[in-house]
Write a structure and sequence with these properties.
201 residues, Dna Topoisomerase Vi A Subunit, Chain: A, domain 2, 8 helices, 13% strand, elongated
């Protein structure tokens, strides 16, 4: 693709480095930005600079937060004896949108996937066990995708947590096997959380 400007080419290259955005889509977005008010584009850029410079990760559950501790962990009305273990912030948001779950979360930061070079030590698993022991957690809910990686992570967590005095449950399989949780509709996901079952091997 030939560009009339090195500046445009640079912008297109950066945008097309994002997942799901090819060079043609990136070019269309760049040309659209050039048509917008200059101040609007500046604010657009500043929003991403602020994202990088000011975003925090909750020191308790490791979700994205504006402060050191997220709103969920700070909410005294939540059930602070229950933790729902999720892969990432997208799944946490999906569950929150169901309004069916009132406990806390723990964001692992991924799933065990040897093919991708991701092992247990790359996830927030030791931090989870520490929370269970220090915060008097009574129940841990596995809410991981029903994929091979999700089931592998579930099993590993179960073997680690079964030594602790904590109830272990898993969301009901209203979520089809092989499905990504973040794409499940809110009614199905809400029902899966509400009708969770004890986790077993």
């Amino acid at each position: 693709m030939n560009f009339p400007s090195k500046i445009v080419e640079n912008a297109v290259n950066h945008l097309s480095s994002l997942p799901g955005i090819g060079k043609k889509t990136a070019l269309r977005l760049v040309l659209h930005l050039l048509k917008r008010n200059k101040q609007q584009v500046v604010k657009f850029g500043e929003a991403f600079i602020e994202l990088i410079e000011k975003i925090n990760y909750c020191e308790k559950c490791y979700t994205i937060s504006d402060t050191n501790t997220c709103e969920v962990c700070n909410d005294s009305k939540r059930d602070h004896l229950t933790i729902c273990v999720v892969e990432d912030i997208r799944v946490m948001m999906a569950i929150e949108n169901t309004s069916q779950y009132k406990g806390l979360y723990h964001v692992l930061g991924g799933l065990i996937s040897p093919l991708d070079g991701i092992g247990p030590n790359d996830l927030k698993i030791s931090e989870l066990t520490q929370r269970i022991e220090t915060e008097n957690i009574q129940e841990v809910i596995f809410a991981l995708s029903t994929t091979m990686e999700g089931d592998t992570t579930n099993y590993y967590l179960f073997k680690v947590l079964e030594k602790l005095n904590v109830k272990i449950s898993s969301i009901a399989r209203g979520i089809a096997i092989g499905d990504e949780i973040e794409y499940a509709d809110e009614i199905t996901l809400g029902a899966a959380i509400s009708s969770r079952t004890p986790y077993s091997e």
